[in-house]
Specification:
The complex is a heterodimer of chains A (about 550) and B (about 350). Chain A is mainly alpha-helical. Chain A is about 80% helix and about 0% strand. In chain A, helix 14 packs across helix 20 and helix 23 runs antiparallel to helix 26. A six-stranded mixed β-sheet of chain B has the order 6-7-8-3-9-10, with helices on both faces. A five-stranded antiparallel β-sheet of chain B has the order 13-12-11-14-20. Classes of the chains: A mainly alpha (about 550), B alpha+beta (about 350). Chains A and B meet through helix 9, helix 10 and helix 15 of A and strand 6 and helix 2 of B.
């Protein structure tokens, strides 16, 4: 430890700490926020191009309007369904004690462990109407619109349940009990007391689900291509805002006239997402549930007997049938399809590349995200840190395809995109995973009583020491959660990757998309399974390693 | 009318027994306090009466009706929580109006009833405020008004004052008793504070380790406790170990460990029985003769001085002298202590030892 003393002294100096803070904030602004929003400058520098090639062309406009409208409709429907189906499950998780609760708890997160590219493929082969259906599949959906709704539910549902459960955990159940001692039935008490206290959690859940559905590209593209390959041609011409960007981004390489349209859709989606975020936030905070109205007899009846069981049973059935089975249906699919040979060399190269990017991205996120999270939580009294706190959400709600295109333009303008594709891809992935680490860590730090660290300081610890010895052990699990989220997001991301590097990107999800597009469905399925297994093992190892180290201390 | 009867109630959480063999009858209009050290099972008991938890055995009757399978909301009780639990999204008035609204009272009652009870707790002028804008004492008053406005005739108070400042706690005790007596309510009040129990109740039920130890009026429990644990838990007392020397019609004589013979009430003990003599500090006086002791500590308490001594009989004793007394006491002084024979009470010496018998768990 002695040797480290001069290092500790050096980094505890006021000047060094100030410089470090400036560096952290500058990194955030120049590598996360500005690249994300850079595409907006296109509207100022080249508005005439947008006017002549987009606004004045009715066909182009109608494609854009249809795609963007589809995005919004899907996101809205998905969010409402997530809420209705997620609330009872969140309730069960927090308020009920039963055997197998931990098992249910892990089941909910399982779809998050599956890369969205695999999810898109899996859900499509499960749902899409198919003259020659895979055994055990549902094979009922013939509309691309409904398929995408079902797909988006799969990966947004866990976010909704998690946000609702988190806030429900915070609400003291004495309130509900108090309501019941005053004569309210279970349902009345839950509706008039707990739900109104819920608004903050509801806002988070709604925004997460909405933006996740709005921005998802890779899984959606794969689901649509799979559907088209299964014989529903309509799917090839169905676009959401994000997949439209993906499509045009691949065309722009050979035909630069698509550039203004591409920029226009990106700007439109970013602007609408931001406006919608603000509106949602305001509406949810202002919206009052009809509290004064009560129907004592009817609500009493609904609180008793078979109704609560039906509600819980229905919610769990939804979880199994709509969320879990479609997520893992790919295993059944591969089992029942005719084997074909998979180019293992190309796949392992793509996997290796993806893991390398995800790993480097996660390390950067942690190294630069934790200090940033500490900065915004410890300076709540300053306006600047509140502004940064809001800004850090921006990459989460901007559709990743738009974000990717924006990053492409930004890094392209610096001349980096040509040779250093790995560097650019890494920076792009940092932009949309960085907020995940910051949010997780900031949330955890806020929960911790600052007097722990203050005590450490009064006992003579330098700031870095009090972080290392007091705060870090307390927030370690949140750092891990953030790291896993960042890693899996990077590993599964397709839209942004394609938007940044075009079709010459060589990550695993992009490779899977290319297999699906080439109608090599069996190979795509097998590649998805390998991706799921490898990432699952990786996560297990990560958990195991972090646990081990805890015991060592 | 809401008399409450508990018959053979027991509650077990896994292997832990929270209450056992509870038989208790609370009369209509009676103010009963369930008193006991923390962890004695008193909160479990009141929660079983309210229906928040189900007893493992036995039955709860309210107003003569078996409450098994009757949900909380149909037991017609008012419940005041230790952590107050005012709904944070509703104003004081909204909170108090909650009961009338969910009980589907008429429009008119929904308007008038809450205001009447807010007036009763003298908070009508605060009715538009949200809970976080009220002080702790005001919040608990609103929560009392809320419980009353639901029209319940049985009020359950679960440590209602323990989250409040000492001063506010004193004021609210009297308010609680005044209001509930004015309204003629049956009250079951749980507390660990024996002073609070003494000042508010008609009757105190003392619990320990999940069982009822003793139940009587505050005066009776203080003046003639039937049990060594009660004598020690309610008020303060000195416990001296000795052997009965003689029992006379008007007093008992006890020989302490150093051979000093002291007096106590007449008793049923026989010569040679091992006993514990309980004598309250305020009944012990310094005199020219009596039990020989050395002062080991002096504590200034304001109106009186609390003196701790070690007697020659190897018992530690407390006694109080008025601040206005002329004599000056200092640590190391020798004093002789006496008391009147009517203020000493004898208990059989517990086989497990005195320490164990008065332990709070």
């Amino acid at each position: 430890m002695k040797r480290m003393d001069w290092v500790v002294d050096f980094i505890s100096r006021k000047g060094f700490r100030k410089g470090w803070t400036v560096f952290i904030i500058a990194f955030f602004l120049f590598f996360v926020v500005i690249p994300t929003l850079y595409v907006v400058t296109y509207a100022f520098t080249d508005w005439s191009a947008i006017e002549t090639t987009v606004l004045s062309k009715p066909e182009t406009m109608s494609v854009i309007v249809n795609a963007v409208a589809a995005s919004f409709e899907i996101a809205a429907i998905v969010t409402v369904i997530d809420f209705l189906a997620g609330l009872p499950v969140a309730w069960i998780l927090v308020r009920k004690e039963f055997r197998g609760k931990e098992f249910l708890d892990t089941l909910i997160d399982m779809p998050l462990a599956v890369p969205t590219a695999a999810l898109g493929f899996s859900a499509a082969v499960f749902w899409v109407m198919n003259p020659d259906p895979v055994p055990f599949s549902f094979s009922v959906i013939s509309s691309p619109f409904f398929l995408i709704i079902l797909l988006h539910i799969v990966f947004s549902y866990p976010y909704m349940v998690r946000s609702l459960a988190a806030i429900l955990e915070e609400i003291d159940d004495t309130y509900e009990v108090a309501g019941r001692t005053l004569g309210a039935s279970r349902l009345t008490a839950a509706r008039t007391i707990t739900l109104p206290l819920f608004r903050a959690g509801l806002a988070t859940g709604v925004i997460l689900c909405f933006s996740r559905s709005m921005s998802e590209t890779g899984g959606t593209m794969i689901a649509l291509s799979t559907m088209a390959n299964l014989g529903i041609g309509e799917a090839a011409n169905f676009f959401t805002g994000s997949t439209l960007i993906g499509e045009w981004r691949s065309l722009v390489e050979n035909d630069p006239t698509y550039a203004p349209s591409l920029a226009f859709v990106s700007i439109l989606l970013i602007a609408l997402a931001l406006i919608l975020l603000i509106i949602l936030k305001l509406v949810i905070m202002k919206f009052h549930l009809p509290l004064r109205k009560v129907w004592p007899m009817q609500e009493k009846m609904l609180s008793r007997g078979i109704f609560p069981k039906m509600k819980d049973g229905g919610a769990l059935l939804f979880l199994a049938l709509i969320v879990l089975i479609p997520s893992f249906f790919i295993f059944t699919y591969v089992l029942f399809s005719d084997p074909a040979s998979l180019d293992m060399g190309a796949l392992s190269y793509a996997l290796g590349y993806s893991f390398l990017v995800a790993g480097v991205v996660t390390v950067i996120d942690i190294a630069l995200g934790i200090p940033f999270a500490l900065y915004i939580t410890k300076h709540r009294d300053r306006a600047s840190s509140n502004v940064l706190d809001v800004l850090v959400n921006v990459p989460l709600i901007v559709p990743t395809a738009a974000l990717g295109y924006s990053l492409f333009l930004f890094w392209g303008s610096t001349g980096l995109t040509g040779g250093a594709s790995f560097v650019v891809l890494t920076l792009a992935h940092v932009a949309f995973t960085y907020p995940l680490v910051v949010r997780n860590v900031a949330g955890a730090v806020e929960e911790i009583d600052p007097s722990f660290e203050e005590t450490a300081r009064t006992l003579g610890a330098k700031p870095i020491q009090s972080f290392h010895r007091v705060l870090y052990p307390l927030i370690k699990s949140s750092i891990l959660a953030g790291a896993i989220m960042a890693f899996t997001r990077s590993l599964g991301e397709t839209g942004a990757t394609q938007a940044v590097l075009g079709s010459n990107a060589l990550t695993a999800p992009v490779y899977i998309v290319s297999l699906v597009k080439a109608d090599e469905l069996y190979q795509a399925g097998l590649a998805c399974i390998i991706l799921i297994i490898v990432s699952y093992i990786f996560m297990l190892v990560l958990r195991y390693l972090t646990k081990k180290r805890k015991e060592a201390i | 009318m809401p008399e409450v009867e508990l018959i053979n109630i027991a509650k077990r959480f896994g292997k832990v027994t929270a209450s056992a063999d509870i038989n208790l009858k609370v009369a209509d209009g009676e103010y009963v306090t369930i008193l006991g050290p923390s962890g004695c099972g008193k909160t479990t008991l009141i929660r079983m009466i309210a229906g928040l938890i189900e007893p493992s055995e036995g039955k709860v009757f309210i107003a003569g009706k078996d409450m098994t399978n009757v949900p909380i909301e149909e037991r017609d009780i008012g419940y005041v929580f230790q952590n107050i639990a005012l709904f944070p999204h509703l104003t004081a008035l909204g909170n108090v109006a909650f009961g009338p609204i969910v009980k589907d009272m008429s429009e008119e009652e929904v308007k008038s009833v809450p205001q009447r009870y807010l007036e009763m707790v003298k908070l009508l002028d605060r009715m538009g405020m949200f809970p976080d804008e009220l002080s702790g004492g005001e919040q608990q008053k609103v929560s009392l008004a809320r419980a009353l406005a639901s029209g319940a005739k049985l009020l359950l108070l679960d440590e209602p004052l323990s989250a409040l400042d000492a001063r506010v706690r004193m004021d609210l005790r009297y308010e609680l008793r005044r209001i509930t007596k004015d309204l003629g309510l049956t009250v079951i009040h749980v507390t660990h504070d024996q002073e609070e129990a003494m000042t508010v109740s008609d009757r105190i039920v003392l619990m320990r380790n999940g069982r009822i130890v003793e139940s009587n009026t505050p005066e009776a429990l203080y003046l003639s406790p039937q049990n060594l644990f009660t004598a020690n838990f309610i008020g303060e007392t000195n416990l001296l170990e000795g052997v009965v020397k003689e029992v006379l019609p008007d007093r008992s004589l006890v020989e302490l460990r150093d051979g000093t013979v002291v007096e106590a009430k007449p008793s049923k003990f026989r010569r040679g029985d091992a006993v514990v003599l309980s004598i309250r500090p305020e009944r012990v006086h310094p005199a020219n003769e009596g039990l020989n002791s050395v002062i080991i500590k002096i504590t200034y308490m304001g109106t009186y001085i609390r003196i701790t001594v070690e007697s020659d009989s190897e018992d530690t004793m407390l006694f109080d002298v008025s601040t206005s007394e002329d004599r000056v006491y200092s640590v190391g002084d020798r004093v002789n202590l006496i008391w009147s024979k009517r203020s000493g009470i004898l208990y059989p010496r517990p086989p497990e030892g005195v320490e164990e018998a008065i332990k709070l768990e």
